[in-house]
Amino acid sequence: MSFSFSIVKKSEEVNLARAGVIHTPHGDIQTPAFITVGTKATVKSLSPEQIRDYVGAQAVLANTYHLYLQPGDEFIKNHGGFAKMMNWQKDGQQLPTFTDSGGFQVFSLGQAIGHGVSKIATSEEISKREAKEINREENNNHERLAIIDDEGVTFKSIHDGTEHRFTPERSMQIQHNLGADIFFAFDECTSPLAPREYQLEAIARTYEWAKRSLNEHKRLGISSATGMPQALFGVVQGGAYEDLRRESARTLGQLGFDGYGIGGSFTKEDIGTAVKWVCEELPENKPRHLLGIGEPVDILLAIENGIDTFDCVSPTRIARNGALYTQDGRINLHNAKYKNDMSPVSEDESWYTHKYTKAYLAHLFKSDEMLAATLASIHNLKFLTILCEDARKHILSGTFIEFKNNFIKRYYK
Questions:
Q1: Which CATH code is given to the segment(s) 4-318?
Q2: Which tens digits make up the pLDDT trace of 136-172?
Q3: CA-CA distance, 27 to 25, in Å (whole number)?
Q4: Hey, what's the torsion of the CAs at 236, 242, 243, 247, to 10 degrees?
């Protein structure tokens, strides 16, 4: 089976929101959908069976940069791809998978390392960081673990300091070895602090890298790991500039990718607007993935403005630190008030974590028990998975805006 995307229903309330189906060689993905991140072909503290059965994840996404460094793409190729290696399957059949390009790792180790900038920051946070940089030479190479040029990026391993190089062609070769159903063109993810002149350079470079990625993908043919066809998504950049975002979306949209990722960093105040700019320009009949975004309100705003799939490490990262998503907002189980809280972790009786009390989970965290991270991770991933499933249901029923507004009102009350 080859890759395709179909729109089941467009929202009757907003122009860009839609419910769809992504068809892959290893199964369908009902959209909107949250894609669970298993960076190194594993979700920390969870088994594939827990991801599949307790979370209800439709697909997992692994990280090209990290898998290239450990255990190596040839090692994974010899396993038949990362999905087979990690036993991501049901009834003997592999389930859908993604890999990212490694572009964000270039960003986080290179351009933004001196700024401390994450995928989403408030304007105030960015302004404070920007002020600290006034007296610092921009792009000071001796501070950076990654150096970008027009051909690719040279970087040092975070494990042993050895030097490596990614080009668009090399990223495609690695991702063919990893064997994901959906993977991304190599791109340059810029800091929101980067000046407009640099953003212009970066989107031009990303466009050239996109063409090279596409050409190499076509040359390689089917995945060398799985023997199956793969779908390649182009990645839109452009920083916080509307004209650059729209230009990047228009030019990449003409290249004939199977779908599109929206990359880069955003300010928290305008993520919906920035997504809207891009989705208004991208081909309507292709799926759109928002890279590295996982806060509930950001997901709903992005769905409203045309996004189909998401991935983010945040739900499991905060889970390991004792934080849970709930309908009434995020809570921290390290707070004393949860010590004797006998209410269930989740309200819904069908969720696995409904069996456990907040007091029990608080005890596990205080005792440094490994089960704490497992249960909290299952809960947070389930929360975002269901959030996307509910959004889909309400798009289909024509009640998405009411659902979104009610959710946000309760979550942030």
A1: 3.20.20.105
A2: 444 444 345 678 899 999 988 888 888 999 999 999 9
A3: 6
A4: 20
Q: In terms of DSSP bridges, do strands 323-326 and 309-311 run parallel, antiparallel, or are they unpaired?
A: unpaired
Cα-to-chain-centroid distance, residue 253: 20
pTM over 0.70: yes
From CA 280, how far away is CA 277, in angstroms rounded?
6
Angle of helix 400-411 versus helix 370-397 axis, rounded to 10: 150
3-class secondary-structure state, position 362 = helix
100: annotated active-site residue: yes
CA angle 28-33-38, nearest 5°? 90
Q: Would you call the peptide bond into 71 cis, given omega within 30 degrees of 0 as the criterion? A: yes
The percentage of the chain sitting over the pLDDT mark of 70, rounded to a whole number, equals 89
Q: What is the mean pLDDT of residues 241-254?
A: 96
Partnered with residue 154 across adjacent β-strands are 147, 165
Which residue among the candidates 28, 91, 100, 181 is catalytic per the annotation? 100
User: Could you write out the DSSP letters of every residue in 159-217?
Assistant: TT--EEEE-HHHHHHHHHHHT-SEEE-------TTS-HHHHHHHHHHHHHHHHHHHHHH
CB 228 within 8 A of CB 201: no
**Is a pLDDT exceeding 70 seen at residue 343?**
yes
Judged against a pLDDT cut of 50, whether residue 127 lies above it is answered with no
Task: Say whether the peptide bond before residue 32 is cis (omega within 30 degrees of 0).
Answer: yes
Q: pLDDT grade, residue 314 (50/70/90)?
A: very high
Cα–Cα dist 95/91, whole Å: 10
Structure-block tokens of residue 230 = 């793969």
pLDDT at 252: 98
DSSP 38-77: -TTSS-TT--HHHIIIII--S-EEE-HHHHHHTT-HHHHH
What rounded mean pLDDT belongs to the chain?
A: 90
Question: Residues 181, 187, 298, 311: which is the catalytic one?
Answer: 311
Active site (annotated) includes residue 348? no
